[in-house]
Design a protein that fits this description.
3 domains, TIM Barrel, 5-stranded mixed beta sheet, Rhopdopsin 7-helix transmembrane proteins, rod-shaped, binds calcium ion, Alpha-Beta Plaits, binds ligand C2E, alpha/beta
Amino acid sequence: MVDILSAHVAFLLFESIFCFISAILCALKNSQEKKARVVITLLNIMAGALLLFDFFEYIFHGRPGALASFVMYSSNLMVFLLCDLFLIVICIYLSIVIFGEFSFKKDQPCRKRNILCFLISIIGMLLVLISHFTGLYYTIDGMNQYHRGDYFYVSVIIAMLGMAIIFSILIQYRKKIKKYRFLALLSYILLPLIGFIFQLLFFGFTYMDIGIALSVNILFVENIVYQNKRIIMAERTDIRTGLANEQGCMEWLEEHKGHPELAEHAVVFFDISRISSINRKYGPETGNRVLKAFAGSFKEEFSKEEFIGHLHGDQFVAIIRKEHLPEVMKKLSDLKVKFTDDTGRDRESRLPVTAGVYEIKPGDFNAEDILTYAATALEQAKAGTGHPIVYMTKELMDSIEEKKRLEAKIRKGLENGEFEPYYQPKVNSRTKLLCGAEALARWNHKGEIINPNDFIHIMEMNESICDLDMYMLRAICKDISSWKEQGLQIPPISINFSRRNLADPDLAKKIDEIVTESGVPKELIEIEITETTDEFSISVMKEFVDDLRRRGFCSSIDDFGSGNASMAVLREISFDTMKIDKGFIDRDFSKDLTILNHIIKMAQSIGLTIVAEGVEQENQVKTLNSFGAEIIQGFYYDRPMPKDQMIERIKNPRYDK
Ligand code: C2E
Ligand code: CA
Ligand code: CA
């Protein structure tokens, strides 16, 4: 039979060791809540010490000799002191976990109760010291036997008073802490209390101390679990907005996978593109504040079964119930945020939103697929479809798939050299001589010649257009070189460069390198660029044109009159040639013709060469001639033709009409 006293003493020792080990673990663990970790370490050391002193007391209890007497006295003193000291440390811990910090400053919540708890604890410790010499709480007789003193219960009442204060704080602010943290803290009140009742019944065993130590164990475990949860939360949370991030979103979908309710939700990807202009205008800190303010106000819209996350930059994702969709979309279409700029001024800004929506179907199991559908719808909304909100439908999905297949085919075609330049002559309508040509891309796919209308807009979207333009430049230089070798008189050839290329500040340099390497004289190459307005400012285009000029190339503004930046572009940028858009030539209303006449006069007066495009009829040539425009490019003279035909044209540069 195990003797119950020995078991108790062994338990004290092991529990004490456990507390010390916990203290070491706690001190070594690098957690975010640094202050809480320090206090938990201290609590474990104190609990370890408390039980160790208890242990010594039992070991030396009733043994004769000076050593036993010393241990009995000092152990008892320490046990009583520690019990009071716990009140202070627990009080500090409580403030840290509830309010984030502990201080005696005026703005510290529960300041009065904290002070009271400290006072009670200090008074308690002073009484312990007095008792040590007067025997108020306990006495130790000549046989080194422990006896409760007449005022032992005062020490218990003091501990209870402190605990009552801690209890009142805990109850008042229970909503500010998580449920498990609340229960762990509550154990500090309940376990010693239960211990005390046991102690009353079974005098001789220190159940109250064990209660304190067990509660410290619970606080330690809760702290570790809480820290781990916070690490996981931090991995799932975007720090700028406090919303879940992409991982959090994936996990939400994974958690709900297979639940029938998932199909009652829709995923909305949306983009607040104005955030970048707020960043530019007011600085990134203001931008972050706006994001945070938006996230905060928007979050309130959602119920518990819904989800809102911040993916990156200005992109958000919401997973909402389908019946909630119209309301959320309405809010998104007229979004306003209030914020304070860096100078402290209050501002309100409208935030236009582009959004892609995917309504989840019962068979949708893959989180990544679901997000991709919504993201693709957003891509469509941003691709300038004219609709800021795009719903992902079966048809749209099919057309996107089709587009992707075509994109892949085009890319492969580019790799396999399936593209080739066709040349459309430019003719001087007065001398009736060939005076230039425009190179136009054709895709020779499995023997079929495909026109640019079927591939240029797709290439423009994924920027492979830049590869095509460089590819064309090389091919054209190769053609010109071979014509030169044949001793032909080659007129200048113009080449189209998509505005997408303007993102590359070294564009002119790259063109120069390719042309120089091929040995083609630079005056034979002219670069055409369209005038339409887009994200590239006029200054970027001007820099490119100036760079070309410095390097000895001519440039022309293509499709003049079709965009809406015409005049501004002409004023700012020194092109050599203006190509008048086919749309202008086609119209023959007197008002349009008057405008055309004036455009030609104006362009000539600032030294531009005029090329009229898309001319199909003789009367158009006549009208243009009467306005002073001589150079004509159009079906009237020639259609775009392959290089072999172009060689013949160069050899016979005279036209009959
Ligand atoms: P663009 O630069 O305005 O080229 C003139 C277009 O008008 C050519 O169409 C040409 O075939 C057509 N055209 C010329 N004369 C007439 C006419 O009398 N009547 C009619 N109806 N059309 C005429 P194409 O070859 O289909 O090229 C279309 C557009 O594709 C070009 O318009 C250009 O913007 C783009 N493009 C073609 N090749 C390239 C290239 O290598 N790079 C880039 N970036 N764009 C290219
Ligand atoms: Ca052109
Ligand atoms: Ca054109």
